Amino acid sequence: MTELFPIYDLATARETILKRRDWSEITYPQSLLDGIFQIFGERLTPEQAVARILNDIRQEGDAGLQRWTERIDGIQRASYQVPSEAWQEALDRIDPDLRDALWTSANRIASFHRRQPAHSWIHQDEDGTLGQLVRPLDSVGVYVPGGSAPLPSSLLMAAVIARVAGVERIIAMTPPDRTTGKIPDVILAAAAIAEIDELYALGGAQAIGAMAYGTESIQPVDKIVGPGGLFVTLAKRQVFGVVGIDGLPGPTETMVIADEHAHPGMVAADLLAQAEHDILATAILLTPSRKLAEAVAKEVEARLQNLSRAHIIHQSLPERGGAVLTPDLPAAVEEANRFAPEHLCLSVADPWSLVHRIRHAGGIFVGESSFEVLGDYIAGPSHIMPTEGTARYASPVNIEDFVKRISLVALTTEAGASLSAVAERIAQAEGLDAHASAARERIKQNWRTTS
Q1: Residue 117 to residues 83, 319, 443, Cα–Cα distance (Å)
Q2: Which among 11, 175, 190, 226 has most CB atoms closer than 10 A?
Q3: Distance of CA 326 to CAs 3, 317, 411, Å?
Q4: pLDDT exceeds 90 at position 178
C-alpha cells in the first residue's frame, strides 16, 4: 500500500473511504475555528458564524452586507455590482482560443438542455379538463466559486440552462480576487456569453444572504444554484425555505470502475484531475485487478510531480482516495450504487454492459473517451451534480431546476358532483367537517341544477 494512493480490501474500504458521514459527524479543523475566532472575536461553530452573517444582512441590508464583506474579505467598495460593459470588454480582451472554448461550451450546454422535455400538458375527457402548466421561475441567483480556482464553467453550467428554461432575471455572485479586488476576466467573459442580467463581486455566506433576503441595492431571487465552499453550503442550508436551492453540494467526487483492460495512465490522470480540486475531494478506483491498481498507483506518483496543485493532491488522495479491490465487476457496480458518487466513470472493455446496472450516480461516463473532465467543461450536461450520496434521490442541475409545475383542474359540474361524494367520504374519515360540507354543497347544487 502506497502512502499517496492506498490500495484497500473491500471490508477496510467500507470503514474508511467508502463510508459516508452525516453532517453531525463533521469535525472542523482547528485552523478553521481559529479563523472564525479572529473574525468574530468569540468561539463560534461555522453554523453559528453563518447564522450571524445571514441575520445581519436580513436585518440591516446593505450596511450588514458591507460590514461583513469588509471584515471577512478585506474589501470595501461603494457598489458590488459589476457593469455589463466590463463583461463585454473582458470577452473582447481574453485569448481568442479561450473565448471560442467558452462559446462552444455554452452552445453545447444549451443544445443538450433544449432537448429536455419540460412542457405543459392538458387532457380533456367527459369529466372536464386536467393538466399541468410549466412556468419558468421569475428570478434565479447563481453562485460562482472564486478563490484559487475561479470557475467560469460553473456560471455557464447554471445560467445557460436557466436562460433556456425561460427564467426572466438571472444574477450571479462571485468573490473578487483578494489582491486586486476584481473579478477575473474569464468569469466576466462567461457572464457576457451566458447573457445574465446582473453580476456582483460578492462571495461567501454574505452573497447567499444578499440573494435570499435582498438589500436596498440588490433584489432577492426565488432560487439559488451553484456550488461553493463550506460557508456557502451552510448558508444555502439555512436560507432554504426563504428561497429554493439546487442542493447542498459537498466536496467533489469521482469513482472509476476499471478492469484489467483499462489504461493505467488514463485512470490515474482522471483521478488526479478530481483530487486537485480541494483537500476534501474524493477520487476512488474500484477494480477486481490488483495488477491494475498497482499500476495506477505508480502512474499517480509519477504524474504528480509535474502538477501545480500537487500540494492539494498530497492531502486529498491519502485521506479520501485510493483503490478498492472488489471480487468482480458486478460487485464493483454494487459498491458504486451504495456510494452513489457524483461522477462514475466506466473504464472497462465493455462499459455498456454495466450501464443498466447503475442506479445511483450524478453522471455516468461511458468508456475512456468520455472522461469526466469533458463533463466538467464541454460535453453538454451540467457539471453541478449531487454529491455526498445525494445521487440516491437527486439529479444534476437541469431544466427542472428552473421551472415549476402548476396543476390545472377544470371539471364539469356533473363530474364535480360525482367526485364530491367520494371526497366527502374521505373528509369524514379524516374528521374534517368543513371539507365534507364543501363537498356536500356541490352535490346539492348539482341536484338543484338538474332537477
Answers
A1: 35, 41, 39
A2: 190
A3: 20, 19, 57
A4: no
Secondary structure class of 115 (helix, strand, coil):
coil
Active site residue 342: yes
Q: What share of residues in the chain are helix, strand, coil (percent, to 5)?
A: 50, 15, 35
- The percent of residues above 70 in pLDDT, for the chain, comes to 97
User: What domains lie within the chain, and their CATH numbers?
Assistant: 7-14+250-393 (3.40.50.1980), 27-73 (no CATH), 84-247 (3.40.50.1980), 412-450 (no CATH)
Selection from 231, 275, 221, 223 nearest residue 252 by Cα: 275
Contact 64, 202 (CB under 8 A): no
Dump pLDDT digits (tens) for 134-169: 999 999 999 999 866 789 999 999 999 999 999 999
Which three cell numbers, joined as nine digits, stand for 204?
Answer: 461567501
Whole-number mean pLDDT of the chain?
93
Biggest distance spanned by C-alpha atoms of the chain: 89
Of residues 198, 299, 342, 372, which has the active-site annotation?
342
Of the residues 343, 368, 372, 383, only one is catalytic, namely 343
Half-sphere exposure of 18 (CA within 13 A, CB side): 25
Cβ–Cβ under 8 Å, residues 220 and 188: no
Q: Which residue has the cell 457598489?
A: 79
> Distance between CA atoms of 114 and 399, rounded to whole angstroms?
8
Neighbours of 30 (CB within 10 A): 8
Dump pLDDT digits (tens) for 212-250.
999 999 999 999 999 988 899 999 999 999 999 998 888
Burial class from Cβ neighbours inside 10 Å (0-12, 13-18, 19+) for residue 95 reads: exposed
DSSP category for residue 82: P
Set of cell numbers at residue 306? 509535474
185-205 per-position pLDDT tens digit = 999 999 999 999 999 999 999
- Provide the residue count of the chain: 451
CA distance 303 to 275: 13
pTM: 0.92
| Pair 105, 239: CB distance under 8 Å | no
Does the annotation mark 216 as catalytic?
Answer: no
Bridge partners (DSSP) of residue 353 are none
Q: Please provide the DSSP assignment of 204-263 as one string.
A: HHHHHHHHHH--SSS---SEEE----HHHHHHHHHHBTTBEES----S-EEEEEE-TTS-
| Spacing of C-alpha 148 from chain mean position | 19
